């Protein structure tokens, strides 16, 4: 069975978008976005899928159905704290890789990407700003100063 309409809205800070996916203008995406704002969510995407069942809801009924469905889902959604992280690039030898990952994990950092080359590994990592100095010191100690963190360009 294929969905008749996949209507959505998202909000990221001051940016937002919505889409009615073929429903009458303003009857799906905007009510979903209104539910996001009413629940004071940020950095969220809501998708409401509708299968047409033969009953004409009218524009008011569609808006209530999409907005109400989104609202109920958001009321039950778990809110997770946003963790600020700074992004860096580094290069290390193969023999240092396991220790780099261990130190990064101990500080709740993430490996965003790895590029294996002939002489070592290039990594993009993300770590809490409060742990940057600690990680830099630990990496310098284990590599005798060869591994340096380079700030990744802002995106």
UniProtKB/TrEMBL annotation:
Domain of life: Bacteria
Ranges where the UPF0029 domain occurs: 90-146
Signal sequence region: none
One GO MF term attached to the UniProt entry: anion binding
InterPro entries the record matches: EFG_III/V, Impact, Impact_N, Impact_N_sf, Ribosomal_Su5_D2-typ_SF, UPF0029_Impact_C
Pfam families: DUF1949, Impact_N
Name recorded for this polypeptide: Thymidylate synthase
């Amino acid at each position: 069975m294929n969905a008749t309409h996949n209507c959505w809205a998202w909000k990221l800070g001051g940016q937002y978008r919505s889409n009615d996916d073929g429903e009458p203008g303003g009857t799906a995406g905007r009510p979903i976005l209104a539910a996001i704002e009413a629940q004071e969510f940020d950095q969220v995407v809501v998708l409401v899928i509708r299968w047409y069942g033969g009953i004409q809801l009218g524009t008011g009924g569609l808006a209530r159905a999409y907005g109400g469905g989104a609202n109920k889902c958001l009321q039950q959604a778990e809110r997770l704290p946003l963790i600020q992280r700074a992004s860096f690039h580094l290069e290390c030898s193969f023999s240092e890789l396991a220790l780099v990952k261990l130190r990064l994990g101990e500080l709740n950092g993430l490996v965003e990407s790895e590029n294996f080359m002939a002489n070592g590994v290039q990594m993009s990592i993300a770590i809490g700003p409060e742990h940057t100095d600690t990680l830099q010191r630990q990496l310098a100690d284990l590599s005798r100063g060869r591994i340096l963190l380079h700030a990744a360009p802002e995106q």
